[in-house]
Every structure is written in C-alpha cells, then in structure tokens.
Amino acid sequence: MNYENKKTDKSQLPNYNSLAAALVDLFGTSVAITQTDRLSGGDINKAYGLTLNTGDKIFMKANAKSNAAFFTSEAAGLQAIAATKAIKTPEILCTGTDDGEDVGYSFLLLKFIKSASPRKDYWEIFARELATMHKADTSAIVKGFGFSQDNFLGANPQINTQTTKWIDFFRENRLAPQFKKADSYFTPEDRTKITKLLDNLDRFLVEPENPSLLHGDLWAGNVMCGPDGKAMLIDPATYIGHREADLAMTELFGGFPPSFYDAYREAFPLQSGYEDRHDLYNLYQLLNHLNLFGPTYLGPVLSIVGEYV
Q1: Which of 78, 120, 204, 290 lies 20 to 30 Å (CA to CA) from residue 176?
Q2: Which residue out of 217, 235, 246, 279 is catalytically annotated?
Q3: CA separation for the pair 250, 96 (Å, rounded)
Q4: 308: pLDDT strictly greater than 60
Q5: What is the pLDDT of residue 246?
C-alpha cells in the first residue's frame, strides 16, 4: 500500500503510541521494515531511512521519549508552511512514541525525499516562493504575532505567546528569555547595556507591513533540493513575526547567493532601514547558540549589543 493513497485527516495529524501501530495504520497489516539505514545530519535527533516490504521508503527522526514535543511542534510548523501552498515541505505521515525494547523514544515519520540537482533558477524560484509564504494571511493561526504553540529553536524552548505588537513579541519572547538564560556570561556592565537595549527596542525595530509566517531557523542546512529541482523547507522553528527575521537568518552563516536577495526584493520589497536592523534579529540566533554551545558565541553577542547601545 502506498501511503499517498491512504486517506487521513490532514488537519488532525495522527499520533501513535508505537512505531508498529503507525506503520500498520499507514501501510497495512502485512507491513514490515526490511532495511534501516542510519542517516547523517543533525546534532539533536537521530535520522533513519526505513525501507518497507511494500516498496515504500520513509524518513524517521527519533529522540528520547521525553522529547516528543520536538516532533509534534515541528510537525505543526511544517503543516503551517504547507498550508500556505507557497513552498514545498516534506509530507508528514505522523508523530508518536514507542516504549522500545530497551528504552523509549519519540519519532516523526515523513515521506522520504529523493533530492535532485537544482534547477538553474533554483535561488530565484526559492526567493519568490519564500516571498509568497511571507505574504500569506496568518490570521487563522493567531491574531498578531506568535504561534498556536511553543516550539524549539535547536534544543532550546522557543516561546510563542501571542502579542499584538511585533516589537513587544521580539522583546518578551525572543531576546529577554535568551538573555536571562545566558545571564551567567555577563558582567554588570554588560547587564546595564542589555537592559538599555531591551528598554529602547522600539528605537531600532519597526512593525511590519503585515505579520508573516516564518520558518524561524532559515539557514542553508534547513533547505534541501527536492525531486523537482526546487527548494524545500525542513526543520522549522515556525512562528508569526516580521519577515526580516527570516531574511536576517539567511545572512548569518555564509548567506545565500546575491541572486536570491535580488529576486526576493523584487517579489516583496523590504522596508527602509533593514540593513540597520538585521544584526539585531540575528542577536536572538546568536544568543541561542551561546546558550546551546557555550562562550564561543559571547563575543559576537556582545558586539551586536554594542552596536545598538
């Protein structure tokens, strides 16, 4: 049985209490795993390619059973992106947990993607599709900024409590929690500057023309080339925010080619002054890296704080 022919309620993503139950429901009672391949990539979850006796192949992400929220929140983000019909994401099959033979685990099952060579206009198409996603109406998700649930940026919790103003959201749910978590790294002088920055955030940021659905962790490692040669978004940390935060993230670790940014600006021109704000958006990403990986990121964090205070 091919899972593309299996009728499921896409608005209610199924969640199972065992991998075996999930496979039977998706592929039929005679299903069996004939081969399990450990896949590379990612430092938080384990990844596997599962080959089934039906001829199907699926992608499985796994983690400790206690981290099941990693996958339910990721699935919710992928669903939100897919619902815009702007850019492709992997097809979600289900989430679940399993007690296992030795230790319990949680899992996310996705359709296995066979990557192809990028089209010649890969970056331009990607930019236009991302712009279309950023233009999509988000009012059915939240009224304002935030998301329907909290999720994760890497392994760190990401707070998505709804606010009506973007600058309030970025202060209260992005910068302030990360600064608090990283407090032991800062001197009294640093803390004074941080407080000043948070108190004066409206001097540096602007409200968007419209709230946008964001990928939330948009760097090259979270984009893959699909079988049609076009970009697919994976591993989101989705929320409703200012699209500048997504664009800034693309520039943080090497950046995308100039053709991507030219095409994006043509499709959806940026508000004036973006170049003066993008480091402030990436302060959130760097703080998260500081809290995940340690003091290597302290210098870049303090450098950005110093730009604005």
Answers
A1: 78
A2: 217
A3: 31
A4: yes
A5: 98
